[in-house]
Specification:
The protein has 383 residues and is mainly α. The chain is built from 20 helices and no strands. The termini are far apart.
C-alpha cells in the first residue's frame, strides 16, 4: 500500500510537470525500500526514476538512467517480475533511441517484445512494438519496423486505445514521408488529423501537423506550410509536447529564414535551443546548425562559424537524435559557410558523411538535399 501511495503521488507530480518533486518522491521510496530490505519496492522506485530520467523533461539524465537500469533489470529478474522487466526494457530502448546506440536500442526492444509475447501481455506488446517500430525505421530496418507498426496498430484498434492509435498513425505518416511514399503519407496524415481532432489529442495532432507542414513545404505551398507550423507549435505547447518547444520552432524558423525573416527565425531558434538544453538535448546539434544558417544568411560570418563549430563539436547518438528531421542540418550549415569563406573541401567532407548515413539508415527524404550539397562542393572544387 505504501508503494502504491508513493507511485501515485509521483505520477501526479509527473503529470503536473513537477518532475524534480516526482524524482524526490521516488528517491524517498527507494531509500525506504532499502531500509526495509524490500526489493519489490526498490524495483518499483527504480522503474519510475528511470522513466523520469529518460523522458524529455528538466530532470533528464541518460547517465543516471543507465546506472539505474542495470540495477533495476537485475532486481526485476531476481524477483521474476516480468511486468517490471518489460517496463525497464522499454525505458532502455527509448533511452538508447535518443541518446545511445542503434543496435543496443534494437536489442532491448526485441528482448522486451519476446518477453511480452511469452507473458501474453498484449497491452505492453502494443506499446513496445509501436516504440520499437520508430527506432527501427530510423536505424535502417524499415521493413522490420513496418511489420511491428502494423501489429501495434491492430492491437490499439482492437483495444479501442485511440490515443495510441493516433500516435501510431502520426508515426506512420512521418515514416512514409521520409521514405518518399508520399501518397501513403498524405493518407495517414488525413486519418491521424481526423482522429486527433475527434478525441482532442493535442500531442499527436501537433506531430501530424508538423508532418503535414513539411509536406506542404515540399509542394512549394509555403504560406500553408507556415500556417501549419504555427498551428503545430500552438497545439503542441497547449498539450505540453516537448517537441513543440524544440523541433517545431526549429522547422518554422527554417521556413521563416527562407522567406527572408532572419530576425524572427533567429529568435525562434534561440528559444528552441534553450528549451532543447532543458528537455531534448539530442536536438541541440541540429538547432545550433539552424542558428549557423541564420547567421550566414544575414552575413554574420564569424557568428555563423561559431554556431557551426559548436554544432560539429556535439556528439549525438541514437536513431531519433540523428534521424528525426535533422540529418542534413549540419551539412547545410557547412555549405553556407563554404559559400561565404570558400571552405568547400570541408563542406564536401560533411556532405559525404551525411550521404553515407542517409544511405545506411535508408531515409531517402534527405537524398535530394545531400546530393545538391555535394554537387555544389564538387563544382566549386573543380573550378
Amino acid at each position: 500500500r505504501l508503494t502504491r501511495l508513493y507511485l501515485d503521488r509521483g505520477r501526479m507530480l509527473e503529470h503536473s510537470g513537477r518532475f524534480a518533486e516526482a524524482v524526490a518522491s521516488y528517491r524517498e521510496l527507494e531509500t525506504t525500500a532499502r531500509l526495509r530490505d524490500d526489493r519489490q519496492m526498490e524495483c518499483a522506485a527504480i522503474e519510475r526514476l528511470v522513466t523520469c530520467f529518460v523522458e524529455p523533461n528538466d530532470m533528464h539524465s541518460w547517465t543516471e538512467a543507465q546506472l539505474l537500469l542495470r540495477r533495476g533489470l537485475h532486481l526485476a529478474r531476481d524477483l521474476n517480475d516480468a511486468d517490471l522487466e518489460l517496463r525497464l526494457l522499454r525505458a532502455q530502448m527509448v533511452g538508447e533511441s535518443h541518446y545511445g546506440h542503434d543496435e543496443a536500442g534494437r536489442a532491448a526492444g526485441l528482448a522486451a517484445i519476446e518477453l511480452a509475447r511469452a507473458c501474453g501481455n498484449d497491452e505492453q506488446l502494443g506499446y513496445l512494438a509501436n516504440d520499437l517500430a520508430t527506432h527501427l525505421r530510423l536505424s535502417g530496418y524499415a521493413q522490420e519496423g513496418q511489420v511491428l507498426a502494423e501489429e501495434a496498430r491492430h492491437i490499439f484498434y482492437d483495444r479501442t486505445n485511440y490515443a495510441m492509435l493516433a500516435d501510431n498513425l502520426s508515426q506512420q505518416a512521418w515514416s512514409d514521408m521520409h521514405l518518399l511514399r508520399l501518397d501513403e503519407a498524405d493518407n495517414f496524415i488525413a486519418q491521424c488529423e481526423t482522429l486527433c481532432r475527434q478525441i482532442d489529442n493535442g500531442w499527436n495532432l501537433s506531430i501530424v501537423l508538423l508532418t503535414r507542414a513539411t509536406r506542404e513545404r515540399m509542394r512549394g505551398h509555403l504560406g500553408e506550410a507556415l500556417r501549419l507550423y504555427r498551428e503545430s507549435m500552438t497545439v503542441g505547447q497547449a498539450a505540453d509536447l516537448a517537441l513543440a518547444e524544440t523541433m517545431v520552432p526549429a522547422q518554422l524558423g527554417a521556413l521563416l529564414r527562407m522567406l527572408g525573416m532572419w530576425d524572427e527565425a533567429e529568435g525562434l531558434h534561440l528559444q528552441a535551443l534553450a528549451a532543447a538544453k532543458a528537455v531534448n538535448p539530442f536536438l541541440c546539434k541540429a538547432i545550433e546548425a539552424q542558428l549557423a544558417l541564420d547567421a550566414f544568411e544575414a552575413g554574420k560570418i564569424s557568428e555563423g562559424t561559431q554556431w557551426l563549430n559548436s554544432a560539429q563539436d556535439r556528439e549525438v547518438r541514437g536513431a531519433i537524435g540523428r534521424g528525426w528531421l535533422c540529418m542534413t542540418d549540419v551539412a547545410c550549415a557547412a555549405a553556407a559557410q563554404a559559400k561565404a569563406t570558400g571552405a568547400w573541401a570541408s563542406a564536401l567532407v560533411v556532405a559525404d558523411e551525411a550521404l553515407a548515413e542517409t544511405m545506411a539508415r535508408g531515409l531517402i527524404y534527405y537524398l535530394p538535399t545531400v546530393h545538391l550539397l555535394r554537387g555544389q562542393a564538387l563544382l566549386h572544387l573543380n573550378c
